[in-house]
Write a structure and sequence with these properties.
single chain; mainly alpha; two-stranded antiparallel ribbon; globular; disordered C terminus
Length: 101
Amino acid sequence: MRNPKREKELLETGNFFDIVTYARDVIKGRWPEAEPIIIRHAYYIYTYARDVIKGRWPEAEEIITTTTDGWLFKCKEGDPMGVRKSSLWKIQQFGQNISLS
């Protein structure tokens, strides 16, 4: 069951894993209020699209496709965030499966 107090806490802390897990296990679908946070991290874009949306996330495709080698990408505030190579491999594989351009 959704818990507004817990949702507020999750949005304030910005913990990618907990946010995606809550969307998957509690909301059981997209959580539009959390998407601006999720879209800041390539690996969680991948897991959110795979586990929550269960398909393409067009708003996030440009972020995934514009990462150079998967090591860094610019988050919304312009701060670099590290992305492990294994995450990039998964994103590329997932992108092929859902026809990312």
